[in-house]
Amino acid sequence: MIKHSDILAKKLGLKFNQPQLFSIALTHRSMGASNNERLEYLGDSVLGFVIAQQLYELFPMAGEGVLSRLRASLVNQSSLAELARLHNLGDYLILGSGELKSGGFRRESILSDAMEAIMGAILMDQGFDVCRQWILKLFSEKLAALKADNWNKDPKTRLQELMQSRRVELPIYELVSMSGADHAQTFEVICKVTISEQACKGFGISRKKAEQAAAENMLNLLQNKDQ
pTM for the full model? Predict the structure, then answer.
């Protein structure tokens, strides 16, 4: 049985001037035309900005690359779904019969989309400042746990640590080709990991630089899959 949205609003510390916005935020597209996709679009945008601004202020010495990686570690499907589960969001989702039968209330994509839709609903109902405060409170523990130093590690190290955290085999790097004169060679390397069917290429003026480039491309590929 779907729990009433008022209970969830209270748990989340929310009080809507337009309660129907919150109901729409919890409504999956499997229910028809009146669903949360438009609110999710808004929420995705405001979440990215709020977290980006907060990271900019928290890590004044971090470069653009580090800030982007920090943001990506927070603003992704798995992270949002984890927060949704923490608040038992699945118990309140309004799903079509097909999604109910297939366990849609547990699916990461549906949970994360609903979280972003709630942010969009807050934005439309109470404006940016209230929405920003709620997002920062929601992400407070995750933000407090971040350390910029961890994201200054080179791509090969970060990819290796990611594979270790997932308890799978370490990445494999293969030299594909070397071209150019001795003093201006270009190396091409591919990187393979067991959790991706797709390999990633990297190019560099040395084999080491090519491997680092391939590792960076693999990290980006895996990150996009998680979002």
Answer: 0.69
